[in-house]
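From the shared-data thread, chain only:
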Amino acid sequence: MVSILIVGHGNFATGALSATRLVAGAPENVYALDFSEGMNPAELKEKMQALLADISTQEILVMADLAGGTPFRTAVELKMTLPEKQIRVVAGANMPALMEAAFSSDSMNLAELTATVVQTGVEGLVDWDAQTEAEEEPDFEGGL
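Structure, as tokens:
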């Protein structure tokens, strides 16, 4: 099983986890860490390091809100300093990607899950106007 750590600015991570739980139930292997207002990068690093160490699985997918942001950079830095864990870091986390991660983390290895999550995140961005121009009746697979 791959564990998922959502990180981001403000309440992005806990908000995304809350939304994921609303749709997917309460996956036991999904964690959230906010880079809250007033928190400095050193505090974030300390909290993230402790959380990563406490996660029992060896494979961890960190899903950050923005490439280059402090949560993303901190996760990349910690990936390099925790050789006992296999960590992959992706940025641009969105609900389709988070849902894919939550539902597929027990059926794929870390590399497969990362590739699938990134693809799902990209495909999850939909331009309604372009969609309706291309199709007579867009199909959203029943919705959630």
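The chain has a mean pLDDT of 92.
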